[in-house]
Amino acid sequence: MSEGKEISGREIKDMKRGIILKTNAKFMVPLILLWGLYVLTHGTSGPGGGFQAGVVLAAGFILYAVVFGLKETLEIFPFRVVLVIASLGVSIYAWIGVFAIVFGGNFLEYGKIPLAHEAAESAKLGIEMVEIGIGFTVMAIMLSIFYTFVQRGD
Amino acid sequence: MIDVVHHLPILLIASGLIGAFLTPLIGLIRKELCNYWATFVTLIQFSISIALFYKVIQVGRISYWLGGWEPPWGIEYAIDILNGFVLVVVSTICLAVVIYGRKSLLKEVPEKEIQLYTLYILLCTGMLGIVITGDVFNLYVFLEISSLAAYALVAIGGRNALMASFNYMIMGTVSACFILLGIGYLYLMTGTLNMADLSRLLPPIFGRPAVMIGLILLVVGLSIKTAFFPLHTWLPDAYTYSPSAISALLSGTFTKVGVYVLIRLIYTIFGLQYFLANIDILIFLGWVASAGIVFGAIMAIAQEDFKRMLAYSSISQIGYIGLGITLANKFAIAGSLLHIFGHSLMKSGLFMVAGLVIYSKGIKRVSQLEGMGKAMPYTMAAFLIGALSMIGVPPTIGFVSKYLILLGAVERGEWAFVAIILFSSLLTAAYFWKVFEKVYFSFGDSRVEKISEKSKEGPLTMLVPALILAVLSLAGGFLAPYLIKVFELWISTIGGV
Amino acid sequence: MIDIIDMVDVILTKYNYIIYIALMTLGFYGMIGKTNLIKKLIGMSVFQYSIFLFYISIADVEGGIAPILIEREATYVNPLPHVLILTAIVVAVSTLAVGLSLVVRIYREFGSIDESKILLRLKDD
Predict the structure, then answer these.
(1) Residue among B328, B324, B353, B327 nearest B339 (CA)
(2) Structural element, H or E, at residue B77
């Protein structure tokens, strides 16, 4: 395993030198994250949704990790935080479902949650909130898979 | 006021999902809390299952519409006596094993509590989901949730477990793909995924080849998950090398859930009329099951490793359940359902005993069990009861279920199957006798050392669940008449019996 | 002669089934016939995706458009199989992730990802 570690370490070092890469990444990462958030919040009225957005968001952070190094990424986004986000994201989903029960509907019957005046409108909001939960979970899981595979051997 | 009873079906699943994903957060506070949390969650699921079973006996079929969408458009959770009963079986074993696992898993796989218990709750919830759902695609999703958790849990067992888990994963994925494809064919022909709706729409198109293909794919896929004889190859390695508590859980529940889906497929989705019209399918499956009974028992006799012997014994016992299903009359079906319950109790209990022996003595081979009857009397008492029940000695539950399956075979006039059931009981006695001999009648050269060591039982949290399961499999024989009465309520609802 | 014409007819009209069966067989061969664990996983993925293609192809309606609500009247393809496959893709990705992490651990433990070598090492134990 030591061989694989050396290679990945050297690669990351090489990338640290590249000023073009860094400048580009600085420009790209916020755009990718912004695009991810756009996809996340427009899943109900157009193509998009939690899964896609989660992967796009994770891609932003992975790009950051590849260019600026794993250590720096782990500083702003430690493994523990990733785990917590993954757990909380799924919990949002489950709790929205339970809220629907509290307001007298069946599980995940979004229309019964009084988020807006109309049932259809609150159903839309409910789905969006669930999608946000899914999005953050997918992002966190993608990141944790990336971390685990890059960190192996440590 | 919220009507909690109405929402019980979804609370069963939701509590598991919330529980599983809160485990990492709890583990971040203190790792030791994970087990208590898992015990709490499975206790909730156990109570809900009991409540659901009770309610289903009282009022009949329960239907819960997810998101308020009316079936067949929405996903429906449908509970009748059959799956209410399986829910109770599964959640009982889940609860017993998690209590047993606190010490056992801590010793066998230390420092992995967070992953272990997250996956554990997910596996339990997945299995309960398979049983409770009334929608075939939802069933596939739950099947994959529980399978993925099972692969990872097997892999936690260490060096040897890795290849076992990999092979299990390859076989499991083939099986899941066949199931998905079978569902696809049924959807292609009927345009619905709801089980009740499928059973209504399928009869007019029974003659179409696509329906037949869908059925074959589903049966083959489920047979892999259930480890029916020629498709069992993943099972011995997976059960032998995974941590003992996980072997106890998987042997007691996962294969039974597969059998449940098979029963659902044959008796609810397709309906018995289809199979009685094509009786060759049932006879063929019956012969396959019988081959599995004999093969599993003979392989079990040849094994030296205690857990591997129990694993082969599982293949044999699952054959009994399969044979009962294919005989398709009142006695045989009741016997099969009872054997699902009985085998869960016995086999989980026996794996717990194997884990206890590993825990306190580090012994894995049958030949090293010499004098254990003196050294660990209570553990071996649990083993004795479980093994006697497995052989089918009255008044245990194993006796009642085998007797019922035998009666079913006699009523069908399938004398070959009668002979196989009797013969394989002998084989079962043979492989357990091998262990009895070592445990109670053989002291070997190390007699002095063994006695000076005094009795050294495992910890109480491990011993008590094993004993409770053993006592239940003994008491099950006396409870059987009541259970059979309940089963008859369900059997009377399927046509053609 | 007529039989052959019929057969060609079947092949041309039901080509989606033939493609999915071919891919499935290919994937199955990869899973069973290869000894390299990564190649087994690739075979597994091909196997899974062939079934997804089957689902997507049965959803198609001639002249149908993507099932997004538009102003004018239109024929939509059946959206349900797409949704099912979206779920199944997530399942496939999870299975692949579990498989790859298993292979990483197997490599760390045995120093090889070739099944025959690993089995030899297991025998040595």
Answers:
(1) B324
(2) strand B76-79
Placement of tokens 């006697």 in the chain = B388
Q: Which residue of A has its CA nearest to C98?
A: A145
Residue (of B338, B313, B311, B335) closest to B417 by Cα position: B335
For residue A78, pLDDT beyond 90: no
Whether residue B72 has a cis bond before it, omega within 30° of 0: yes
Neighbours of chain A (3+ CB pairs under 8 A): B, C
Examine residue B315 and state whether it is found in any structural domain, yes or no: yes
Residue ranges per domain, chain C?
A: 2-124
C108 touches chain A (CB under 8 A): yes
pTM of the model: 0.91
Query: Which tens digits make up the pLDDT trace of A113-143?
Result: 777 778 888 888 888 888 899 999 999 988 9
Interface contact C17, partner B, CB < 8 A: no
Rounded Cα gap, residues A135 and A44, in angstroms: 13
pLDDT of residue A7: 52
CA distance B14 to C54: 32
CB–CB contact C105 B144 (8 Å): no
**B76 in Cβ contact with B64 (< 8 Å):** yes
Q: Tell the residue number behind the tokens 């070592």, with chain if given.
A: B438
Q: What's the confidence (pLDDT) of residue B448?
A: 47
User: How many domains in chain B?
Assistant: 1
Query: CA nearest C51 in B: which residue?
Result: B181
User: Phi/psi of residue B131, each to 5°?
Assistant: -75, -35
**How is B152-207 classified by DSSP, letter by letter?**
HHHHTT-HHHHHHHHHHHHHHHHHHHHHHHHHHHHHHHHS--BHHHHHHHSGGGTT
Q: Tell me the CATH number for domain C2-124.
A: 1.10.287.3510
ipTM of the prediction:
0.92
Mean pLDDT of B7-34: 88
Question: What span, in angstroms and rounded, lies between the C-alpha atoms of B41 and B33?
Answer: 12
Residue C26 in contact with partner chain B when CB distance is under 8 A: no
pLDDT in tens, C25-78: 999 999 888 889 999 999 999 999 999 999 988 888 888 887 777 788 888 888
Q: Locate the domains of chain A by residue range.
A: 2-151
Structural domain including B343 reads 298-497
C86-99 in b/e form (b: 16+ CB < 10 A) is eebeebbbebbbbb
Question: CB B17: neighbour CB atoms within 10 A?
Answer: 21
Whether residues C97 and A145 touch (CB distance < 8 A) is answered with: yes
Tell me whether residues B14 and A86 touch, CB distance under 8 A: no
**8 Å CB contact of A94 and B28:** no
Cα distances from B147 to residues A1, A36, B95, B204, C95, in angstroms, run: 29, 31, 19, 34, 9
